[in-house]
Amino acid sequence: MRTVVALVLLALVLATVPFLASQGTIYFVTLILIWSIFAVAYDLVFGLTGLLSFGHAAFFGTGAFVFALMTQAFPDLFALGLLAAIAAAAVAAAMAGMLALRLSGIYFSLTTLAIAELIFFATSSPLRALSGGEDGIAGIVRPSLFGISFYDDTNFYLLVLVIFMLVLAGCAVFRESPFGKVLSGIRLNEIRAEQVGFNTKLSKLIVFVVSGAVSGLAGALLVSLMMFFNPQLMHWTASGDVVIMTLLGGKGTLLGPVLGVAAYEVAREQISSYTVHWYGILGICFILATLYMPNGLVGLVRAIVARVGGGRS
């Protein structure tokens, strides 16, 4: 019940943004929502199942790349482009998962990183004729549905908001489902989960594919927002960003990754306006946050609420 109330309140707050904010702010919040979709999807693997992947940018970028190609070929079929992006990212995640999930711990993490870098290299160099290499692909379309042009940032924001809330609600149901409980059990004790009869390898592969598919959706929405694709979306730095965002907000929680994305993007926007060395400063901030907020922003909020509640009683 708390989750439903939280989602309704979040939707109501976000729905007011177009009425209160400037066009630049609307674009910025849209960016946060798209990265939040990516982070929420990543946390299904990281926070829920306990698998530290360093290669999720591969699926994020694969969705973006396929969407860019589809909309170049079929500019009027936006929904088809999204479906193709989701399917391509799911296939990439399945292939990567079947290889990486043979390993565990740091070996799994490094394997996902290696696979992602191979995909990044393939897109940047051998597939340069399709991807444009460092020049990327420009002129990616936004949809025009029912007479509504989504080239208007406000309209596109509302479209992304609907998709974001559907993804968030779907992830909430996924987490609370029996399968979600199995994944939590795998995180806590994989050996015991196997002993009681669960196929842990298949379960991990399924969640890896689901996470990859939703990551591909986020990638497609991002390049549609920017109307531009660059292979840098597949670079290891994008994987690092989503790990930091998830940890900063609070891994293993539904809204933690969303808070982490918002805090990260706001900090990046503010710090980069003062110095080109913003990434290093963000790194220091992240280290301090890890030391003093081990449970992320969600943990901090819960601690404050508990303290206020205890003080009142």
Describe it.
This protein has 313 residues and is mainly α. It has one domain. Helix content is 76%, strand content 3%. It has 15 helices and 4 strands. The chain has a two-stranded antiparallel ribbon with strand order 1-4. A two-stranded antiparallel sheet has the order 2-3. A hairpin with a 2-residue loop joins strand 2 and strand 3. Helix 4 runs antiparallel to helix 5. The longest helix has 27 residues. The radius of gyration is 19 Å and the shape is globular. The two termini are 24 Å apart.
Largest sheet: 2 strands, antiparallel
Query: How large is the count of helical segments?
Result: 15
Oligomer: single chain
Binned, the helix content reads over 70%
Q: Could you give the distance between the termini? A: 24 Å
Helix and strand run: HHHHHHHEEEHHHHEHHHH
| Poorly predicted segments | none
How much beta, percentage-wise? under 5%
| Total domain modules | 1
Radius of gyration: 19 Å
Name a few traits of the molecule.
15 helices; 76% helix; two-stranded antiparallel sheet; mainly alpha; 313 residues
What's the helix and strand layout?
Blueprint: H1 2-15, H2 17-20, H3 23-48, H4 57-73, H5 78-100, H6 105-124, H7 128-131, E1 137-138, E2 144-145, E3 148-149, H8 153-176, H9 178-188, H10 190-195, H11 200-226, E4 228-229, H12 236-249, H13 256-272, H14 278-292, H15 296-312
Antiparallel strand pairs: 1-4, 2-3
Short summary:
This protein is mainly α. The chain has helices at 2-15, 17-20, 23-48, 57-73, 78-100, 105-124, 128-131, 153-176, 178-188, 190-195, 200-226, 236-249, 256-272, 278-292, 296-312; strands at residues 137-138, 144-145, 148-149, 228-229. The protein has one domain (2-238).
